[in-house]
Prior knowledge:
Strand content of chain B: 15-25%
Number of helices of chain A: 3
Oligomer: heterodimer
CATH topology of chain B: TIM Barrel
Largest sheet of chain B: 8 strands, parallel
Number of domains of chain A: 2
Shape of chain A: extended
Distance between the termini of chain A: 45 Å
Structural class of chain A: mainly alpha
Distance between the termini of chain B: 16 Å
Low-confidence stretches of chain A: none
Largest interface: A-B, 29 and 30 residues
Mean pLDDT of chain B: 97
Strand order of the largest sheet of chain B: 1-2-3-4-5-6-7-8
Number of strands of chain A: 0
Largest sheet of chain A: none
Radius of gyration of chain B: 17 Å
Amino acid sequence: MTRQQVLELYFMEARFKLVEVAAFLDRVDRAKGPPDFRLAAFRKAMKELSGKKPGRAKKVLLAFSDPTTKPIAKAPGKGACGAWPAGK
Amino acid sequence: MRYIEPHGHMVSRTTDDYQDMVTAGCAAVCEPAFWAGYDRKGVQGFHDYFCQLTDYEPKRAAKFGLPHYAWLCINPKESEDVKLAEEVIGIIPQFIDKPSVLGIGEIGLNKNSRNEMKVLEMHVDLAARTNSLILVHTPHLEDKLKGTRLILDVLKSDKRIKPERCIIDHVEEHTVQRVLDAGFWAGMTLYPESKCSPARAIDIIETYGAERLWMNSACDWGVSVPLAVPRTALEMRRRGHSAKFIDQMIFQNPARFMGQCPKFKLPA
């Protein structure tokens, strides 16, 4: 596909999602509460969006990922929360 | 359009879903064993579940002319209890020769714990001893990268395991390359809220090639879409991919991988 064709197919959807992210951040700012590792990871991941090189989706996923390599002693539960709670 | 649903948890779906899938062109559905949403208390619960997967569910699918295949294991979410896992793995040989059982799956890791690793190694050993295909679940979200690395280490360290007979499922942009580079097949799961969207799955195909990739809906009792594979085929068409290439991705590739098990047969 040409760049024009990609934009015709996906621009409106991407624009919608970008506004959703902006509104989410405004919502978080309006709310009160202690710092949260998920928001810190989110802000770190957002920096990858302004990069000039391809591979942004991979970099965003890496920003949320547990970078350690050893198995943990015991599963703390079953679920995942979407961001690695570094140091917890 | 014809397609194969290579990963669908049909025990959690309605007969309407079977009808919709067949109407959309589904030629076969393959169901890996998974977590029931609660921890089963003993091996008998798994025995009953394996009977459901290998007896009742194929009959339910057959009412709609749809071949149904299964993969057996204790899911990583229940792998923290190693003793129970040993008991469950102990009864799998009773089912492994059933005509619709393709292999061991979906094994893997959930939170990347030591016990999960032990149970993964036990499953891999069983697959090696029974010369079975392997379907691997990779962890969710922040745990996926680490889990994928650990899983690949386990599989590569067992010299009896042939990478071309294993599929590592739920890959995303940060894990697909290392899976393919190691010679394994890679599966992309099309979920509305996590894993891959149709657009991202097609991006991955366009970036990494279609040789050893498949797509699945992994439809279960959570937020998921049983028709995610044919809908992604429509998205591929919107991008200008040929009917031949789409057929390779949604029919021929899963047929080629699962055809390594002689029990996998498609209707003529």
